[in-house]
Amino acid sequence: MGRNVAIVATGVSKTFPVGKQAVTALRDVSLSLPVGTLTAMTGPSGSGKSTLLHLIAGLERVDSGTLEVLGNQIHRCTAAELSELRLREIGFIHQDFSLLADLTLVENVRLPLEAMGATRGDATAAACEAMDRVGLKGLEQRFPAEVSGGQQQRAAIARAIIGNRTLVLADEPTGSLDSKTGAEIMGVLARLRDEGVTVVLSTHNPANLSHADQVVVLHDGTLLSPDTAESPDTLGAGTA
Ligand SMILES: Nc1ncnc2c1ncn2[C@@H]1O[C@H](COP(=O)(O)OP(=O)(O)OP(=O)(O)O)[C@@H](O)[C@H]1O
Ligand SMILES: [Mg+2]
Question: Boundaries of each ABC transporter domain copy (predicted)?
C-alpha cells in the first residue's frame, strides 16, 4: 500500500435498519483517492454521499468490505482508535456548520486543539492562524449569529483544519450559501488541497465539480464512475 493513497474502499456496503426493513445506503463501493487531491462526490438526494463521508470519518461502521483511511484499516479499529484518528487527523465539516452558538468564533475553532490537550494560549494562537487562512481575520470575537452564513462556514472549515489535520471531509459545504460565497468556500478548500491536504466533499452543485481532481458519482448507493482516481499512484491499490 503506497503512502500516496489517502482512502481505499473495497466492496464497502452499508445498510440502516428502518423498522423491520433494511435500507441499503451503499452497495459494493470501491474507490481509491490519492493524498493531496480534492474529490467531489455527487449524485441525487439519498444516493449515499453523506453515508460514505460518515464511514470515511469513522462516524459509522461498514457492514461489509474494507476501508483504509490514512493508513488505518478503520473497519477493524476500536471506537477509541476511531475517536483518536478523528481528533488528530480528520476534520469534518457538517452541512449545518454545527458551530456552538454560545462560543465566539475563535472559541469554536480552538475546541479540537483544547480537546487534544493544548494550552488555551497555544490553541488560541493556532485558531487565529487557521481563521486567518480562511479569511476570517478580525472576526475572532464575534458569535456565530453575528456573522454571515459564508463566514460561519469558513469558521467550520477553520475548526476542521486546525492542528494540521491531513484529511478534510465536507458534507455539502456550499449547500446553503449563495453562488459567490459558495465559490469562495470552494476556493478555500482547493487551496487546502494545494497545500497537500486530502479533501473529500459532497455537493449538489455542478459548478463545484470544476475544482475537483476526481468526481465520484453515486446513484442508489452504487458508484457510477468506475474510472475514479485511476492515477498512476493508485493503480493496483485496491480498486481492481
Ligand atoms: N441513520 C439512518 N437511518 C436510516 N436510513 C438512513 C440513515 N442515514 C441514511 N439513510 C438512508 O440511506 C440512504 C443514503 O442516505 P444519505 O444521507 O447517505 O444520502 P445523500 O446522498 O447524502 O442524500 P442528500 O443529498 O439528500 O444529503 C437514503 O436512503 C437514506 O434514507
Ligand atoms: Mg447528504
Answer: 7-240
Task: For residue 49, report the distance from its CA to the centre of ligand 2, in Å.
Answer: 5
Per residue in 106-116, pLDDT tens?
999 999 999 88
Domain holding 51, by residue range, is 36-61+78-223
Q: Does a structural domain hold residue 93?
A: yes
pLDDT in tens, 29-66: 999 999 999 999 999 999 999 999 999 999 999 999 99
Is 17 inside a domain boundary?
no
Q: Where are the beta strands (DSSP E) in 87-159?
A: 90-93
SS3 letters for 124-137? HHHHHHHHHHCCCC
| CATH value at residue 43 | 3.40.50.300
To test ligand 1's pocket by mutation, which of 29, 47, 171 has the most ligand atoms within 8 angstroms of CB?
Answer: 47
Q: Which of 194, 212, 192 is nearest to 202 (CA)?
A: 212
Closest residue (by CA) to atom 24 of ligand 1?
Answer: 45
